Amino acid sequence: WHFKNKSDLLGAMCERVQLPMEAMVEASASERVDDPLGNLRATCVFVLQEAVRNPHSRKVFGILFHKCEFVDDAEPLFVRQRKSFLQGSANIERIIRNAIAKGQLPQDLDAGLAGISFHAMLDGLLNNWLFSPASFDLAGDAEKLIDAGLDMLRTASSLRQK
Hints:
The protein is mainly alpha-helical. It is built from six helices and no strands. Helix 2 packs antiparallel against helix 6 (138-155). The N and C termini lie far apart (57 Å).
């Protein structure tokens, strides 16, 4: 009864879960960070483990991934989610560029493609686990899964600039 409609209620739920995570990624994207890949790794592991261990986060992620129907791209929640997605993508790409500049990733890495790939991997892990939590141990394997994504950035020849 404190909200005008379901969209406002869901928006408030999302704010509580996403803002701290978005702030962590934003902080990791700063050029002043000495270890951009280390910060990205820590943030991603936290997000994956948070989805498993925090019932509120898990519930909100589950709603967003599997129970939320966006029918109007002008709806405030859709606008908020798209903005969050685009900002997250931009921050991941910025982190990758910082990591390249600091010698943590290859100089010829295509930061745009690398960012798309890494973001999709992270999104897919959450989506798949939320759909079928018993199918794999997300909390227990979070570090290995994120490390595999970082290894992809270091070694995938298909992510190199021509």
